[in-house]
Amino acid sequence: MIGRGFTTPWIATGIVAASVLAALGGQAEAAQCGNTGAGFEAWKREFAQEARGRASAQSLAALAETSYSTATISADRGQKSFKLSLDQFLAKRGGNTIVARGRQLKQQNAALFAQIEQRYGVPPGPLLAIWGMETGFGAVKGNINTLSAVATLAYDCRRSEYFTEQLYAALTLVDRGVLTAATRGAAHGEVGHTQFLPKNVLTYGTGGSLDNSSTALMSTANFLKGHGWRAGAGYQPGEPNFAAIQGWNAAGVYQKAIALLGQRIDEGR
């Protein structure tokens, strides 16, 4: 009888179920990414719908206050220094200044660095090189709204999946009181003296604010240890601990700069 337009009960049930699943599937689709600010507000509403149950009302209220960050997009598209040679990169970043200041700070904070090395196996040099390279030892931590930066990159199509996970981490940090709607930092959503992305704060933060230099340095050492750092092993290219430095930043010239500056700080030359 099906050929004459009649439908058996089990087929009707199947049709209804398929319709429901299709509707649910439509709701489960990811919020639509974009390459301009035009769709950002619509994306926030879609994301908030998806995030219910995974993010709190408080954190989603903070997300609602965010705005599309053109400064973040500009920085994301303009990372030209990573294409420089190592010598050019070090000159641009002030390598000699980082080494000189790093040696001073190593002496002034000898007890702290001894404690860190005993606990995590990481010597002062790489930590000071990262600190100097990232923020000039805390002088320039950024002035871009952190949630807006992370939300903008989660919406932006270039690396949406990666920064969507960062955004969920940021919302968790809002619930924990670590971040607020007013928190400001670097262009990609990094915060603190050594510029941790939200997911790294959750995974490797040792407690307390990363705007405290001691906490930031301990957390950075914890990050390196979490990426395979072995106490007493070398950290130059080709040596065991260089892989942990590679985990810090994907740019080859940056990795080599950290290793070289860290060695100069550790060896006092």
TrEMBL record:
One of its GO terms (molecular function) is peptidoglycan lytic transglycosylase activity. Residues 40-235 form the Transglycosylase SLT domain. The keyword Oxidoreductase does not apply. Gene3D superfamilies: Bacterial muramidase. GO terms for biological process: peptidoglycan catabolic process. Residues 1-30 form the signal peptide. Keywords: Signal. SUPFAM superfamilies: Lysozyme-like. InterPro entries: Lysozyme-like_dom_sf (IPR023346), MltB-like (IPR043426), SLT_2 (IPR031304). This is Transglycosylase SLT domain-containing protein. It comes from Methylobacterium gregans. The lineage of its organism: Bacteria, Pseudomonadati, Pseudomonadota, Alphaproteobacteria, Hyphomicrobiales.
